[in-house]
Design a protein that fits this description.
The protein contains 2 helices and no strands. 67% of the residues lie in helices and 0% in strands. The protein has one domain.
């Protein structure tokens, strides 16, 4: 298997495993107050001790909605993994096809 493709598949599978763990934590905390925080990295890091006059948007998202969102992310990652596997299968089939054509040419040359 192409190393780049196999590394990408491994990274995507790791993402899926992390999302599943997060989903389980959310599922077990239903009924409790759960806060989701999305941070963007700036040149000075993640921490914004002084908010530099920026607004904070607070989204009230129920835990069940977050679980549905995470399920969608898992499905997308699985689709990407399947596409990568299909690409690898196509590449192998092309290589095998070339190899078979070379064998046929050698046999034809040997017959002449």
């Amino acid at each position: 298997m192409n190393e780049k493709i196999s590394n990408t598949i491994a990274a995507k599978q790791q993402n899926i495993n992390e999302i599943i763990k997060l989903k389980d934590k959310i599922r077990h905390s239903i009924g409790k107050d759960v806060r989701f925080r999305i941070e963007t990295k700036h040149w000075y890091g993640y921490a914004e001790d002084f908010h530099f006059g920026k607004e904070r948007d607070i989204l009230d998202i129920p835990s069940e909605t977050m679980i549905i969102i995470l399920d969608g992310v898992i499905e997308k990652e699985k689709e990407r993994i399947n596409k990568l596997i299909d690409m690898e299968i196509e590449n192998r089939n092309k290589k095998e096809g070339r190899h078979e054509r070379k064998k046929r040419r050698k046999k034809q040359k040997a017959r002449k």
